[in-house]
Structure formats: structure tokens, C-alpha cells
């Protein structure tokens, strides 16, 4: 068996969807194991340009089985909309190539309401939620107050369970936020609209994966967001509400004894960050505007302008360690082609002195970047396909990062298209 995990090393949006789309050529199964419809994995291929939110990025390959594992936030509204969008573009989605874990918890309609109500209450102290209901969903999952997808096969039990949850939730919506409560009719309409449509895909995916693994199939696990958004090891509380790290793949997929052969960490050639929270190497003014424009850095899900900054070696080396990455894919190198000299953050200046270790989250606000400059290459590299054909300054930049983060860079991406890739030994 061969198994790989594609993970983000930084704050997300590193180009994981693009890498999974490329790598799925070598895999039989692609598995999402955490997160939900707040992801925005952009894939550009022969069918067009897509921002995948919940569906695994292997969905475009006809011979790949795609799995949504027990660890995901199963949002029926998002999923049904996404399936319809892709089908309209000619992509085949059937229970043969999409399987949903019967142990995945379902994101219920009030999760999105509560997300919006809480962000509104927080006003300028908000966390920058994508308002997809992810935080309320995972909170409820750990309070054991969600329903499992497999309950759809037992309607009489499901109905009672949903009613009990609604009664409890209405107390919070009404008494804490003064929001609009749910009625039994609301729930019936919602379940009638969505549950029958996702039901054909629901199965015991852990058993499917065990059998796939036993028969030597190749499995690729796809994470959402990046190491710095991990609930345990990220920049808490500006994290997501699930574990974005590779170590969670066995648990969130149901293949609990899995030992990956490769952990492919995706790193962008510069830094970006969506939403709130400390971002030490952040650029401002004209310098930031130019980089944002060059990299088209606007959120795939929200359209929000992303915050941009220099490549951050301190955060990236930390991300590599937390992910346990064995290989790195460096994306968007082509975006830096306009720069005369390229800034790189090689250390942080903190009240305790200069450090190369990523600080405890609460101390990040007091950290400032130490910037060094590397020579730019000032030429279009988007058509380059071989490492030796890259300008020397571009190779030096990649090699500098590779040494500094202590992990081999095996892929260099120079464009969003599937073929815009350089394989480096
Ligand atoms: P993900 O969530 O990690 O999959 O990343 P996003 O999809 O949010 O962001 C990556 C963006 O960069 C997408 O618009 C991709 O099409 C684009 N992209 C990926 N790799 C490259 C690259 O090497 N060069 C350029 N110019 N764009 C890229």
C-alpha cells in the first residue's frame, strides 16, 4: 500500500487543491478527514476553474474514489450545491466515486446562524469566521449534540434526535442571542430537502478504506487549511476548530492504523493569511498591494482580500515540524518574478531577543520580523518545466528556503494549471 497526506504548512491557501489534483494521477482514493465547507481548494483543469469546499480534489479523475471521512463537518447544503455545480460542468458524481462516512457528524442549519450571531456579538473582537458554522458545529460535536450521517438510515430515531437537539438549541438562540428559533416544520423541510440527496453516498467508509488498504490501493489524504490554523498547535484562538495536521488523518478518515509513506507539505513562495490574528511578517501599503495583485490573493470562499507578507521561515519551519512533512511542494514561485529583490523573514525579534523558534501564540503580537533580501530573477518563469531551466536566482531562492526549513522541496509550482510544475530531485 502507498499512502500520502497533503497538508498546508502555513495559514492555509497554500495551493493544496492544486497539488492534490496533480498527485491524484498516482492514487486510487482521495480522502478528506477534517474541516468542512469553509475550505476553498482551487483546482484548474480541463473542466475549468473550481473552488472545492467540501468535495475531495480527486473528484475530477474518473478512476478515483473520493471519501469524506468521519472527521469532516458534513454540511449537506454546501455539499448538495457543490455536487450540482460540478455535475453541470460535466463531472460524474455517483455513489461509486463519492462516499460519505456514516460516522461523519452533520452540520445542522443552526450552526451557521450561531456563527453569524456570535461574530456579530463580538463586533471588533471577532475571530474572522467564514460563517460556515464550523466552530458551533465542532463545539456541538464534542458536546455530543450532533447527528451522525448514518442516522439517516433510521428515520424514526433521527426525527426524535433532531427534535431533542432543536429544543436545546432554541434555548440558546433565543435566550443568549435573541435570534429566530427553529420549528419542527423548519426541520422537516430542511431534512426533506437535503437528507434524501446525500443518503445514497453514505456508507461505512472505514470498512471501505480498510479493504482498499488491504488490497494495496494507493490512498491520498487531503487536509484543509494549514498547521498554523490547527486547533491544538496553531495560533490559538485564531485557529480553525479541527486538527489540520497530518497526525489527525488516521483518526478523521477511520483508517486508524494508517502509517503514511509521505507527508507532502504545501508552502507558498510568500505568506498569506485570511482573517484576523497575528501575522508577524505582514506587509503593508504599496508593497502589499503589488504582491496581492500579482498573486490574485482573494479568498476562494469569501472573496476577502488576503493579508500578504514575505516568506516566513520561522513559521514555515515550525509548520514543517508540526506536520511531520517528508516532502515540500513550493507553490506560486512565478508570482515573485516582478520583484527586484525578495524579502524573506528569517527570524523574529521578541522582547526576549532574536529567535528562530515560533513563539507561544500569545507572544506573537509582540514579535517583529527580521527581514533579509535575496536577489530577484525578473523574468517570466511560468513556462519553465525543468529545474535546470529556472534562472539561477530562482533556484537560489528555492534552495535557500529548503535549507532554512530543513525539508526537501520536491515540487516547484509556477502556475495554477495542472502541468505548471517542476519536479526537483
Ligand atoms: P488551497 O486552499 O490550499 O487549495 O489554496 P487556494 O486554492 O485557496 O489558493 C491557491 C491559489 O493559487 C489558487 O487560486 C490556485 O489556482 C493558485 N495557484 C496554485 N499554485 C499556483 C502557482 O504555482 N502559481 C500561480 N500563479 N497560482 C497558483
Which keywords apply here?
425 residues, alpha/beta, Adenylosuccinate Synthetase, Chain A, domain 1, Adenylosuccinate Synthetase, subunit A, domain 2, Adenylosuccinate Synthetase, Chain A, domain 3, 3 domains, 10-stranded mixed β-sheet, 4-stranded mixed β-sheet, 11 helices, 22% strand, globular, binds guanosine-5'-diphosphate
Which small compounds were modeled alongside the protein? guanosine-5'-diphosphate
Beta strand count: 20
Write down the CATH class of the largest domain.
Alpha Beta
Output the strand order for the largest sheet.
9-7-5-2-10-1-11-15-19-20
Q: What does the main sheet amount to?
A: 10 strands, mixed
Residue share in β-strands: 15-25%
Helix content: 25-40%
Unreliably modeled segments: none
The SS-based structural class is alpha/beta
CATH architecture of the largest domain: 3-Layer(aba) Sandwich
How far apart the termini lie comes to: 23 Å
State the CATH topology of the largest domain: Adenylosuccinate Synthetase, Chain A, domain 1
Shape, please?
globular
Mean pLDDT equals 94
Q: Give the C-alpha Rg.
A: 22 Å
Number of helices: 11
Count of discrete domains: 3
Classified in CATH, the superfamily of the largest domain is Adenylosuccinate Synthetase, subunit A, domain 1
Amino acid at each position: 500500500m502507498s499512502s500520502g497526506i497533503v497538508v498546508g504548512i502555513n495559514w492555509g491557501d497554500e495551493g493544496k487543491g492544486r497539488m492534490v489534483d496533480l498527485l491524484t494521477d498516482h492514487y486510487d482514493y482521495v480522502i478528506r478527514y477534517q474541516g468542512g465547507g469553509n475550505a476553498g481548494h482551487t483546482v484548474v483543469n480541463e473542466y475549468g476553474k473550481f473552488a472545492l469546499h467540501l468535495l475531495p480534489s480527486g473528484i475530477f479523475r474518473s478512476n478515483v474514489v473520493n471519501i469524506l471521512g468521519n472527521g469532516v463537518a458534513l454540511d449537506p447544503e454546501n455539499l448538495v450545491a457543490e455536487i450540482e455545480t460540478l455535475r453541470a460542468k460535466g463531472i460524474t458524481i455517483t455513489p461509486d466515486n463519492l462516499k460519505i462516512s456514516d460516522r461523519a457528524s452533520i452540520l445542522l442549519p443552526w450552526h451557521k446562524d450561531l456563527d453569524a450571531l456570535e461574530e456579530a456579538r463580538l463586533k471588533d473582537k471577532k475571530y474572522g469566521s467564514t460563517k460556515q458554522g464550523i466552530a458551533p458545529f465542532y463545539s456541538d460535536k464534542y458536546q455530543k449534540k450532533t447527528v451522525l450521517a448514518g442516522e439517516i438510515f433510521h428515520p424514526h430515531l433521527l426525527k426524535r434526535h433532531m427534535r431533542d437537539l432543536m429544543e436545546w438549541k432554541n434555548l440558546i438562540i433565543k435566550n443568549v442571542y435573541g435570534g429566530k428559533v427553529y420549528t419542527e416544520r423548519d426541520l422537516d423541510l430542511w431534512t426533506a430537502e437535503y437528507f434524501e440527496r446525500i443518503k445514497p453516498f453514505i456508507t461505512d467508509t472505514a470498512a471501505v478504506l480498510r479493504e482498499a488498504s488491504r488490497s494495496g490501493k494507493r490512498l491520498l489524504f487531503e487536509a484543509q487549511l494549514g498547521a498554523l490554523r490547527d486547533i491544538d498547535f496553531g495560533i490559538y484562538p485564531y485557529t480553525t476548530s479541527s486538527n489540520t495536521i497530518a497526525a489527525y488523518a488516521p483518526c478523521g478518515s477511520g483508517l486508524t492504523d494508517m502509517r503514511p509513506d509521505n507527508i507532502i507539505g504545501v508552502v507558498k513562495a510568500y505568506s498569506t493569511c485570511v482573517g484576523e490574528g497575528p501575522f508577524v511578517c505582514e506587509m503593508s501599503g504599496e508593497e502589499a498591494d503589488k504582491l496581492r495583485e500579482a498573486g490574485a490573493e482573494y479568498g476562494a470562499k469569501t472573496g476577502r482580500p488576503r493579508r500578504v507578507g514575505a516568506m516566513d521561515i520561522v513559521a514555515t519551519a515550525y509548520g514543517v515540524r508540526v506536520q511531520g512533512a517528508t516532502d515540500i511542494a513550493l507553490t506560486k514561485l512565478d508570482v515573485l518574478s516582478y520583484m527586484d529583490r525578495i524579502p524573506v523573514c528569517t527570524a523574529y525579534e521578541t522582547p526576549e531577543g532574536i529567535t528562530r523558534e515560533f513563539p507561544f501564540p500569545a507572544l506573537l503580537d509582540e514579535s517583529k520580523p527580521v527581514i533579509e533580501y535575496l536577489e530577484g530573477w525578473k523574468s517570466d518563469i511560468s513556462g519553465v518545466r525543468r529545474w535546470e531551466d529556472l534562472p539561477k536566482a530562482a533556484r537560489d531562492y528555492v534552495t535557500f528556503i529548503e535549507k532554512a526549513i530543513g525539508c526537501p522541496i520536491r515540487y516547484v509550482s509556477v502556475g495554477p494549471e495542472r502541468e505548471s510544475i517542476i519536479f526537483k530531485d
